[in-house]
Write a structure and sequence with these properties.
homodimer, mainly alpha, Farnesyl Diphosphate Synthase, 74% helix, globular
Chain lengths: 301, 301
């Protein structure tokens, strides 16, 4: 495992965290609801999606771009967090633990967890608009990025992926192709959009935005495969949730289809494809993104 | 009851409905999830919020403004519909009926209902951005309207209002002032934002946008009082839900505080205040909005 990338990731995550700590305050949110939203929003995590926005914006943007895109970057963590809260609900995956702590509806209650998710999702779009209104990014860029993100996070993307995942759970005969499409919606779409939005917000041209998007698409798949592998080889303390829970839930996974070794090799293939999308660029952001992609598979290889 | 305004409202609602029928298609939404979203989105309703966007935009905008703001107007119905789906959930108000039909989680299942709500909320922001990207409205206006709407619909507005409402249910000693503030968040904020966004999207100046907002704020309160009154005096067939359900749930209402007659008189006062905000304008939109405000209280007076 490369030490520098882990430290860089932690440093950037800390910047995002600093913004997240403040961003829900002074909005007239009732106390208990605010506590519930912040409980999950500040429960740790790698802040991968905001970091991807910041890094791709940094690749193409001018000096100071990171500060300008920060509200937009933070909005992706709000969306990611809301999706985790709702996915954990009794009617969904019924998970009692998240990152080693009681899941939101266990810590608070079901109604509050549903509303905390709704609140985080809605505030996310307020934060996105603030990237222009407060930080001065061109309005047309921000609107294009909002459209990309709404599509990725919505019923044709992340939300739809969760619906398909629920249909698949316990169903016999799910094909690898169906599994791929489900993951592309459920986890891939938001990671892909993070990269593309970073590029769009920094004023990148179409070809650069496509490289960003395809980088995201490929690391998204790699990330999912590694998650499936970790569920088999990891332990509860490392995962922050019970190991082997996918199998217990009857979930289709890459290791179930092709075994552990082939799954790991496939993850490496996707990281290679992601690296190719970086080949035309130089500088510290290029290097960071290159190492970040590698770091994803380093967790298991 | 004034016949013309009812017909006009129905005609405008039909236009909104025509857009809503198409707007979720071709977005790659899984079949069952799409069916669930459309089940609630197309279950009828007065389409009051979109009509308010269209009318206030028509008041200040140029020829053809209604077509341009239609995606944004429709987005308010998506947000309103998602809030009804989530409010009906077992963990929230646990309502089996909505507009005389099984509520979403009864017709489908709880997980699908949660996801249908999440999907509608997310698509709403996609539709808002389309008002600029597809329809050509200036990007900065659309972004300002998105910010207004995100604040109104979010945890400091509608979502927060539902959280406070749940806290109040069955609690002794809720004051009239607390009730007012809860309603201002839960139902008032979105109606207020509909009017303000219509004005913003049409390029209205600050004073005009404030009149729109205050018109919305006042009819929002009137609307809520009338709803409380109808829950007492209406019957299940008219309401599409069991009459007297507020009392059965132990909810604080205006009639419980001040009786039916004083409640009705208060609703009329708010409509008068709304009418005052229209006094400086002329033309068909002014007349329609004037009659619309009156129509709200005509339902019970």
């Amino acid at each position: 495992m490369s030490a520098p990338v882990k430290e860089q990731l932690a440093a950037r995550a800390a910047e995002v965290e600093g913004f997240l700590v403040r961003c829900m305050r002074d909005k007239g949110i009732p106390d208990r609801l605010l506590a519930s939203m912040e409980y999950s929003l500040l429960a740790g995590g790698k802040r991968l999606r905001p970091v991807l926005v910041l890094s791709w914006a940094g690749m193409f943007g001018e000096e100071g771009i990171a500060d300008k895109v920060m509200p937009f970057a933070a909005s992706l963590e709000c969306i990611h967090t809301y999706s985790l809260i709702h996915d954990d609900l009794p009617a969904m995956d019924d998970d009692d633990l998240r990152r080693g702590k009681p899941s939101n509806h266990k810590q608070f209650d079901e109604a509050t967890a549903i509303l905390a998710g709704d609140g985080l999702l809605t505030e996310a779009f307020g934060l996105m608009s603030a990237a222009s209104i407060v930080k001065g990014l061109p309005a047309d860029r921000v609107l294009r990025a909002i459209l990309v993100l709404a599509r990725a996070a919505g019923a044709g993307g992340m939300v739809g992926g969760q619906a398909v995942d629920m249909e698949f759970t316990g169903r016999e005969g799910v094909t690898l192709d169906e599994l791929r499409r489900m993951h592309a919606m459920k986890t891939g779409a938001l990671i892909t959009a993070a990269c593309e939005c970073g590029a769009i917000l920094s004023g990148a041209d179409k070809a650069d935005a496509e490289n960003a998007r395809e980088f995201g698409r490929n690391i998204g798949v790699a990330f999912q495969i590694v998650d499936d592998v970790l569920d088999v080889v990891g332990d509860t303390a490392t995962l922050g949730k019970p190991a082997g829970s996918d199998e217990a839930m009857g979930k289709s996974t890459y290791p179930a289809f092709m075994g552990l070794e082939k799954s790991k090799a496939l993850a490496v293939d996707y990281v290679d494809a992601a690296h190719e999308r970086l080949s035309g660029y130089f500088g510290p952001e290029q290097e960071f993104l290159w190492q970040l992609a590698r770091y994803i598979v380093d967790r298991v290889c």
